[in-house]
Amino acid sequence: MWIDSHCHLDATEYDGASNVIADEARAADVKWIVVPAVERANFKTVAELAIENSGCVYALGIHPLYVPQAVEEDLSVLRDAVAQALNDKKFIAIGEIGLDFFVPSLCESAMRTKQEYFYSEQLKIARDFNLPVIVHVRRSQDIVLKYLRRIPVVSGIAHAFNGSVQQAEAFGRLGFALGFGGAMTFTRALQIRRLASTLPDELIVLETDSPDISPSWLHPARNTPAQLPKIAAVLAELRGQSLAHLARQTTDNVARVLPRLGSLLMQ
């Protein structure tokens, strides 16, 4: 059994075929798909996808790429939505939240300040409700870590991790796992492949970030969660491990850092 710990199943790139995509993933033994929200406008959408698909769970949050158009009220709406969703067993985390210092317009002083404000406020929501977080860490690992130390949360996933070994260890000490996906299938992705090869078993979870970050055999076509077993095979080869071991370990890791999903796995 595999878990796709990060997939934007509601993306417009799927042309309304999200349920078909989810069915294809189940046929490929991807039994669970974590679908994070990205803005207030799709909170309801990701929740409905989880209702429609037995193997889908969801997170609620405001993605850093959507912070430019976000308003203060969105944080209140998020807090209220989280309070209401706590009774929904398919609701498992706050996400996708975090910081993006790759996109030039997001690095300008005012927007960087706004990003950090929305990130810190969402960490407070996660802390207050004792929920894990799914964090976006593009060229922002140290600042993301700084806020996690100031506003500690129960656990989480550093999505699409591409930092240093020291940063990876710092996330691990804070109870986080690190997401690896299609990027490591490219032989030129030397740093990601080194990390994927050498980090301790308990730090690694698998993800697709579908429809983005397509693996080498699909690029530049859209990605899907059904690709996860083939991505896992690359990781198994890099680590010199069996697929069976990797499936068990990554499933255990997801259950640990996303405990509400872990409860579903035990049912």
Give keywords.
267 residues; alpha/beta; TIM Barrel; eight-stranded parallel beta sheet; 8 strands
Write up what this structure looks like:
This protein has an eight-stranded parallel sheet. The protein contains eleven helices and eight strands. With 267 residues, it is α/β, with parallel strands linked by helices. The model has no long low-confidence stretch (mean pLDDT 97). Helix 3 packs parallel to helix 5 and helix 10 crosses helix 11. The protein is globular, with a radius of gyration of 17 Å. Helix content is 45%, strand content 16%. It has a single domain, classed as TIM Barrel (Alpha-Beta Barrel), CATH 3.20.20.140.
What is the element layout, followed by pairings?
Layout: E1 2-4, H1 18-27, E2 30-36, H2 43-52, E3 56-60, H3 72-85, E4 91-100, H4 104-107, H5 109-128, E5 133-138, H6 141-150, E6 156-159, H7 165-173, E7 176-180, H8 190-198, E8 204-206, H9 228-239, H10 243-257, H11 259-265
Parallel strand pairs: 1-2, 2-3, 3-4, 4-5, 5-6, 6-7, 7-8
Helix pairs in contact: 3-5, 10-11
